[in-house]
Amino acid sequence: MARTRYSSSQGKRPPADLTQIGSVAVTDLISPAPIVIDRYRAFVFPNRVREQRQHLGCSKLMQLSNALPSIPYIRLSKIERGEVVARADELRQIARTLAIAPVDLLSDLSEPGFDIAAWAEPFQDKRPVPIDEERMAVLLAASLRVMRYADARLTIAALDRDYDLPPVILSRLENAYKTLDRWNGGTLDSLCRLFGVVDAAALRDEVEQRYRRGELDAFVNKIADPNMRMARSRDVTTSLRHELSRGTDRQTEADPARPAAARSEPHQSQSAATAAAVSSPQAAESAPAALPVFGVPIAGGLIGFERTSAMIDAPAQAGPRAFALRVCRATLGPGLPASAVVVADPDRPTAPGGLVAIRTAQGFRLATITFDRMGATKGYTTQPAMEIDIDDIDPVDVIAITAAVYP
Fold first, then answer.
1. pLDDT tens for residues 315-373?
2. What does the angle CA 244 – CA 245 – CA 249 come to, to the nearest 5 degrees?
């Protein structure tokens, strides 16, 4: 894949504002932007979830997670650790379980006494990280961002497909959440292929040279400046306070992905409601034994919702509204071939790293889902290469895939 490269031998470098097109002639004696290392750059959402959980007698996060079946444990852990921004509906669910007000889960970052070092201390790796490794992580992150700005073909989907850099890994790399010496061999090999170098030592040298030529100036401080990180954190916290005060969520308080039986009592705790739904004889009787298979291929990688003559055995945990969908085309790659059949279940919650069927006016689209660093839910397809903002879609149209049947 051809990529735009900037060479000091040409006497050029990209402008500080990469929204402009073209290069500005300079000498090789450029003083690159200084790097201020922010050791708390991974914490984008300082909050009081851990403090409130422990204060209210819930000593282990797993205890809270068990009472919140609609928020996966990994997601809940990242929220508590401040690694992703919680949505307002998630804060309401957590607060309802802890019997407190949702705003009590938010930290006041504008308080003179707020200390990010003290807040982050329980979540930090106790192993000291050399400042040179921290610096290299920032330079690598800036280099990746410059490459993606310079070449429109380096989309998130393309980096996943062509270089084996999944969205979650790419996000951690582009935000310098992990130093280069701590990535595994597979990720290092992918980075070397992307940068066109032979090994990790050459990768370090390449990134360093890009910095010295001034090519990374536009991004270095956006990644490493603690003042910019705190400003972003304050902005998102203020926005959440405003959203919670208005009572407007992207999702309804009653999670539409959960079974109707679990939503029937608005004052019932989530854990009790879920247990009641699971133990309900009526719910057990309504579980299907077999599922009809729907699905015909239509344009754009979509699946038309037309019934076929096929039937498959229903998975043991299938809800009463589950249905089977023929894949039709390998839109997610060879791991899910066109001949496969997936089980879509509106009564099961979606989870990051899983698959979903997205209902559109034309038909269904299969996608993998994950969260970005700001807490937004993203869906990805390979053929065609697409990035989908899941949070902008009505939750009832995003259906969990719980099983796959191969021919």
1. 877 888 889 999 999 888 877 888 999 999 887 888 777 899 999 888 899 999 887 76
2. 35
Coil, helix or strand at residue 2: coil
pTM of the shown model: 0.52
What is the rounded CA–CA span in Å between residue 400 and residue 386?
A: 19
What letter represents residue 185's amino acid? G
How far, in Å, CA of 230 to CA of 44, rounded? Answer: 8
Q: How many residues does the chain have?
A: 407
27-58 burial code (b ≥16 CB/10 A, e <16):
eeeeebbebebbebbbbbbbbbbbebbeeeeb
From its phi and psi, is residue 313 left (phi > 0), alpha (psi between -120 and 50) or beta? beta
Q: What are phi and psi of 209, to 5 degrees?
A: -65, -40
Helix (H) or strand (E) holding 193: helix 185-195
DSSP-assigned beta bridge partners for residue 303: 297, 364
pLDDT digits (tens, 9 = 90+) for 189-225: 999 999 999 999 999 999 999 999 999 988 887 787 7
Tally Cβ neighbours within 10 Å of residue 115: 11
Characterize the bridge pairing of strands 290-297 and 323-326: parallel
Measuring CA to CA, how many Å separate 260 from each of 66, 181, 252, 393?
A: 19, 48, 14, 20
User: Cis (ω within 30 of 0) for the bond into 167?
Assistant: no
